[in-house]
Amino acid sequence: MLHSGHVAFFEEASRLGDLYVGIGSDSTVFALKGRKTINTEQERLYMVKSLKAVKEAFVNTGSGLLDFEEEVKRLKPDVFFVNEDGASPDKERFCYEQGVEYVVSKRIPHGQLPARSTTSLRQECKIPYRIDLAGGWLDQPYVSKHYAGPVITICIEPDYEFNDRSGMATSSRKKAIEMWQTEIPMGDKIQLAKTLFCFENPPGTSVISGSQDALGIVMPGLNRLDYDNDYWPQKVTTVLDEDILTWIENHLYLIPLQPRKVGYDVLANTNINETNAQKLSIAANDTWNTILNKDIENFATAFSASFEAQITMFPNMVDNVILRSLEKYKKEALGWKLSGAGGGGYFILVAKEPHLRTGMKIKIRK
């Protein structure tokens, strides 16, 4: 869906030299996004080729996030230019290996025009996503029975076309879309979240999706969900303070990763016990308190500690590729975690200043 944001992106890139544009094939977009394209690859190619900023355009012949590998090897460009929501460690690593400069745009609109994204133009769905900042897995009784504790979530506006299987409650969001179509309805948010939770987990469900997903989608703002050996939290605490939510937005960045491998079992090789559950609970409590105090240094420490506690209990959340990629960002960020177990999601990074060299900013539903 060509819009002014694309044109501004192409114009920015063309200032660096002759611009060659590779677009994803219909099959690649479907594999990454989980839906068919509005315009076919040939329609998209025709429109991109018609722009004066573009010297040449083509459909990438590969698949996945690195569908452009053969085209880059053939063209041998000086610069690889990508939007912040399309940047990834795998792309940067590939460019480094090919001796190509890697440049990330920052979505600057042209002149006084409003910022545009394909998601905002689609207007197909305003149902938000959910990020768990700390304590994830405590919403499962087989974890919280060892030690009670909170899960800390934020409700994220769908400003970007977030990747499917991203660890941002996408499966619960699909159920919400199935039930409510385009928007969370009016009414008691707790009751709506219970309805979504029950709809996603009907009687006979073998693997129960945690209620932090349903609550994190339905409840706006920042939420603390306290669990104690039950699927539903004993207490829900919501923060809608503008200063606190803006503070979070200014210090979090998302870096997209490759989709998770088919058949990946995150629940294999677990190490769940009282000691490890307690570490996760303590880190989540610390994360909550440091957010309320807007203490960036200690927030970053607690944020990372929660992630370390998670992967201690669930080592299959990460693999060597993910850990190697994360090492690079540890040099830029104060804190870090992974949204999607086993990949397929995003690195979530904490930065001290409201600026990071690469990464997507978020918008919390208020």
Task: Describe, in plain words, how this protein is organized in 3D.
The longest helix is centred in the C-terminal third of the chain and has 19 residues, at 274-292. This protein has two domains: 4-122, 3-Layer(aba) Sandwich (Rossmann fold), CATH 3.40.50.620; 129-350, Ribosomal Protein S5, domain 2 (2-Layer Sandwich). It has helices spanning 4-14, 26-33, 41-49, 69-75, 89-98, 118-122, 141-144, 170-180, 189-200, 211-218, 242-251, 274-292, 296-313, 320-330; strands at 20-23, 56-59, 79-82, 101-104, 129-134, 149-156, 222-227, 235-239, 252-256, 335-338, 346-350. The strands form four sheets. A four-stranded antiparallel sheet has the order 5-6-7-8. Strands 9-11-10 form a three-stranded antiparallel sheet. The protein has a two-stranded parallel sheet with strand order 1-2. The chain is an alpha+beta fold and 366 residues long. It is globular and about 60 Å long. Helix 8 (170-180) packs across helix 9, helix 9 crosses helix 10 and helix 12 runs antiparallel to helix 13 (296-313).
